[in-house]
Amino acid sequence: MYSLVFFLFLQVISAAPLPRVITRMHTAQAITSTFTTTTGTTTVWLPPVEIFISNGVTYTFTMTEGQWATTPVTTTSIYNKAVDVATTAETTPAAETTPVDQNTPAAETNAGENAQGKNTPPAAETTPVQAATTPTTQAAAQTSSATTQTSVITQTPTISNIVVDTPTTSTTPTTSTTPASSTTPTTSTTPTTSTTSTSSTSSTSSSSPSGGTISPPSYIVYSPYANDRSCKDYNTIKSDLELIQSKGINKLRIYSTDCATLTAILPLALTMGMKVNQGFWISSAGVDSIDSNVSDLIDWAGDNGWDLFEFITIGNEAILAGYCSVSDLISKIASVKALLREGGYTGQVTTSEPPATFIASPELCTESEIDFVGINSYSYFNANLYPSQAGEYAVGQQAQIAQLCSKSAFITESGYPHQGDTLGVNVPSPENQHIAIKAIIESTGGDVTILTTFDDFWKDPGQYNVEQYFGTIDLF
Asked: Cα separation of 304 and 315, whole Å?
């Protein structure tokens, strides 16, 4: 009987449902939020540094305090906070949270740009008037740690008004058909063995991969010397000037009054409606070597007037060549200007030197009677500059010297060789000459003097074997 009751009890128990007390818990992963805050700016004072090279010696100058530049530097802080998500019980799904966008870039600042637009090129380069620094602030890497702060100050200063000019020494060709004259300028470096071409009547123009595709400059250098160092005749000069004018160039830079300058170049230019930057070439004999040239030009203008002359340049790289002292040149500029005024000339006068000369001796522009500063700028002689940087290099130097001298500056020479030795990243070739000249024209708007019309085989090849290969007439 008891067995039957116990059996029935087990049946009841096994049939009855048991209560379920199982609990599930789900924990969501932490979500990281990123917050970017700009905390302030810092002022950094960087003195502009001037560097130039002369005769293998590097000179460094720190400009005056008033020309220092201030650069704001932005400090960016990044806060990464872990957001805890509540757990859920039973079968309730975990709460969904939308994270803050973690791809938002940190603030970026630009403290300044080069006056040269051009580029600030790598290493030593003279581009802007003021020392420019370009700080860039970048966000630190995101982390998932709870509440961390990273402050980043990234500053990459580019001292962009550095002038590096390899000095050049001018050579004077010996002419066989006229009296000895010391009035022939070049931009030659240390002379080596002279090379002459077989032609004696004309110079050879440079070749170009795409000749005639560049807008013309306002001025181009023209010299009345044949390849054999004799003087060109009237008909050759006439043909040359007609070619120049056909390219849309109506202004010439002439360095002296020798050869057929007074009997052919100036009369033809006057007849053709051209303008001239007339020069007085100071030779190794010193500043008085130009006296007869000054007298001859005043006599010519007495018969023909002064309207032909856009301005007059007293000396070209005479200081750089060591042909005279700065004080002697300053005195000579004053005396020549006085003579010109007595002769009826009321226009402007200048002298022409590489920027390094004015940086080393600013009194040449601040204490002399020049009306503006003439600079000769060649990116080729800076081994760190590519041909494409020639234009920004030239206008950067122009702006820099204008500020230094508190006078306007004009580029009285600029160009690029199409043959010669490789110098750093500069490889003379027709292609690179085309690139450089195009960059110069674009950067200056064409308001520049390009050296030179034809290849000049009457010159010595120079230290880098480039001096004979600056001809550009086929490019325009």
From this structure: 24
Write out pLDDT tens, residues 129-177.
333 333 333 333 333 333 333 333 333 333 333 344 433 333 333 333 3
CA of 464: how far to CAs of 52, 175, 413, in Å? Answer: 18, 24, 18
Residue type at 19 in one-letter notation:
P
What DSSP character marks residue 261? I
Burial of 330 (0-12, 13-18, 19+ CB in 10 A): buried
219-221 and 155-158 strand pairing: unpaired
Alpha helices in 146-256 (DSSP H): 234-246
Domains of the chain: 25-158 (no CATH), 219-475 (3.20.20.80)
Cβ(334)–Cβ(369) below 8 Å: yes
Residue 25 has pLDDT above 60, yes or no: no
Q: Look at residue 368 in the predicted model and tell me its pLDDT.
A: 98
Q: How far apart are CA 130 and CA 400, in angstroms?
A: 8
Report how far residue 89's alpha carbon sits from residue 344's, in angstroms, rounded to the nearest whole number.
105
Catalytic residue (one of 317, 353, 413, 467): 413
E strand segments, 87-179? 88-89, 132-135, 148-152, 155-158
Asked if 127 contacts 147 with a C-beta cutoff of 8 angstroms, the reply is: no
Q: CA 387, CA 167: separation in Å to the nearest integer?
A: 19
* β-bridge partners, 313: 279, 350
DSSP for 367-401, please give it. SS--SSEEEEE-GGGSTT--GGGHHHHHHHHHHHH
Peptide bond into 98 cis (omega under 30): no
Least confident of 85-94, 257-266, 386-395: 85-94
CA distances in angstroms from 48 to 122, 128, 155, 268, 390, listed in the order given = 16, 10, 16, 47, 21
What pLDDT band is residue 212 in, cutting at 50, 70 and 90? confident
User: For the CA atoms of 283, 285, 288, 290, what is the dihedral angle to 10 degrees?
Assistant: -30
In the residue annotation, 413 being an active-site residue is answered as yes
pLDDT digits (tens, 9 = 90+) for 295-313: 999 999 999 999 999 999 9
| Contact criterion met (CB below 8 Å) for 439 and 391 | yes
Say if strands 49-54 and 57-62 run parallel, antiparallel, or are unpaired: antiparallel
Q: How far is CA 452 from CA 116, 257, 310, 330, in A?
A: 24, 18, 18, 28
List, in sequence order, every residue forming a beta bridge with 423; answer none if it has no partner. Answer: 426
